[in-house]
Design a protein that fits this description.
The chain is mostly helical. The chain has one domain. Helix content is 81%, strand content 3%. The protein is built from four helices and two strands. Strands 1-2 form a two-stranded antiparallel ribbon. Helix 1 packs antiparallel against helix 2 and helix 2 runs antiparallel to helix 3. The chain is rod-shaped and about 75 Å long. The chain starts with a helix and ends with a helix. Keywords: Membrane, Transmembrane, Transmembrane helix.
Length: 126
């Protein structure tokens, strides 16, 4: 997560340099921007995958719950209960620093903060 914060700072510095130094080569700026976007995408990809995994597990629990309601075999009902308890015990919910859930909202929050600082930087520059 610290690397992501440093990358956000590096993004802001790149935008500031691009806005203030007009003699700078556009190839250098373009390569910086592409590198930053690739690093941000690689950093945020786990949160997107975790959200997708959590949604798939929720769908699986819904299907198993429906099957539990219509199932009449006692042995099969016990197995379904066992699977539901296993899914609850081994769910794929992780947090960053025990405070931020690692899901899609973290990605949107990070993008929102970057856009907010980008707008503030453009206001101070012009």
């Amino acid at each position: 997560m610290l690397a992501l914060e440093c990358d956000c700072l590096r993004t802001l510095v790149t935008i500031y340099v691009f806005n203030t130094d007009y003699d700078m080569s556009s190839e250098i700026v373009f390569s910086w921007i592409v590198e930053l976007l690739m690093f941000i995408a690689a950093s945020l990809l786990p949160s997107v995958l975790m959200e997708r995994n959590a949604n798939d597990l929720d769908d699986l629990k819904a299907v198993l719950s429906e099957e539990l309601l219509i199932c009449e075999d006692k042995h099969l009902r016990e197995k379904i209960h066992h699977v539901l308890r296993y899914i609850d015990a081994c769910s794929a919910t992780y947090t960053v620093w025990n405070g931020f859930p690692l899901n899609i909202s973290l990605t949107f929050s990070f993008i929102g903060v970057c856009v907010l600082y980008f707008i503030a930087l453009l206001q101070f520059t012009f």
